[in-house]
Design goal:
Blueprint lengths: L2 E2 L2 E2 L2 H11 L12 E4 L2 E4 H17 L9 H8 L3 H7 L3 H13 L12 H14 L1 H8 L4 H23 L7 H24 L6 H12 L2 H24 L2
Helix pairs in contact: 1-2, 2-3, 5-8, 6-8, 6-10, 7-8, 8-9
C-alpha cells in the first residue's frame, strides 16, 4: 500500500477508476499531487474520492446501507481510515459528494425547452445505472438525501427552461420559481414512485407522456403571470397618479 500524504491509492477499485480515465496512467504519476491523463490533469484528491465512492457502490450491491461501515469501505478500497476522514466526515458526507459531483453533470447543457426531455431522461438513466446505490438510498434513512438530490437537479433543469421561456415577458422571479417548483414536485413524485416500483417501466415512455402533458403549459403559465404583473403595475401607476 502506498501513502501520499493525506491521499492514498485504493487497490483494485482505485486502479479501475484510473483505467476508466485513461489506460496510460502509470505508478510513477501517482507520486505527484495531481495525475496527468492524456490532456487532463486530475487532482489526486478527486481520484481518491472517486475510488471511495466506487467502493461504497460496490458494497451496496452486496448489502444494505445500514450494514456498511467505514471500515468496510476502506478495506475494500485498501486505504486507512485517516484517508477516508481526510476527505469525508462520514458515509452520508460521501453520499452527498456522489450526488453533487456525479449527477448534476448529467443535465448541465439540457436546461432549455428544446432539451429538457433529454435532460430528464439522463436523470432517469443515472438512477438506472446506479440501481443498487439509489435503491439503497430509497429504502434507508438516507432517503431524504436522495430526495434532496432529485429535487435539486430537477429544479436546476426546470428553472433553466422557465427562464428561457420567460425572456422579455416581465415575469417576477418569485413567479418563475413557483412554476419551476410546481413541476419539480410533480416530476420527482413520478420518479420516486418509479423507484419504489423497482424501476421497471421504460423511462422513455414516462417522459413521452410528460411531454404531452407539459407541452405549452409553462409558456401559458408565464403569460398569465406576465398579465398579472402588468395589471398590478398598471394599478400601482394609477394609484400613484391620484
Amino acid at each position: 500500500m502506498f501513502a501520499f500524504g493525506a491521499a492514498q491509492t485504493c487497490g483494485p477499485v482505485f486502479r479501475a477508476v484510473m483505467m476508466k480515465k485513461a489506460s496510460e496512467a502509470t505508478i510513477a504519476s501517482l507520486l505527484h499531487p495531481s495525475v496527468t491523463l492524456g490532456q487532463e490533469v486530475v487532482p489526486m484528491a478527486q481520484i481518491t474520492k472517486k475510488a471511495l465512492a466506487a467502493s461504497l457502490k460496490k458494497l451496496l450491491r452486496e448489502k444494505p446501507l445500514d450494514k456498511v461501515t467505514i471500515i468496510d469501505i476502506v478495506e475494500d478500497c485498501e486505504v486507512n481510515r485517516q484517508t477516508f476522514y481526510y476527505h469525508f466526515q462520514d458515509i452520508y458526507d460521501l453520499i452527498d459528494w456522489i450526488f453533487l459531483t456525479e449527477a448534476l453533470v448529467t443535465i448541465d447543457d439540457k436546461k432549455t425547452y428544446a432539451t429538457w426531455q433529454q435532460g430528464f431522461l439522463e436523470i432517469f438513466q443515472y438512477v438506472l445505472a446506479n440501481h443498487a446505490f439509489v435503491s439503497n438510498m430509497y429504502h434507508s434513512v438516507s432517503r431524504d438525501q436522495l430526495e434532496r438530490y432529485l429535487y435539486s437537479v430537477t429544479y436546476e433543469l426546470l428553472i433553466g427552461v422557465v427562464e428561457e421561456q420567460a425572456a422579455g415577458m416581465g415575469v417576477r422571479d418569485e413567479d418563475k420559481k413557483f412554476i419551476a417548483d410546481f413541476y419539480k414536485f410533480a416530476f420527482v413524485g413520478l420518479m420516486l414512485d418509479w423507484i419504489r416500483q423497482g424501476m421497471k417501466e421504460d423511462p422513455v415512455k414516462i417522459i413521452n407522456r410528460l411531454g404531452v402533458l407539459v407541452q405549452g403549459d409553462i409558456a401559458r403559465a408565464l403569460e398569465k403571470y406576465s398579465m398579472d404583473y402588468k395589471s398590478a403595475c398598471s394599478k400601482d401607476d394609477f394609484l400613484n397618479n391620484l
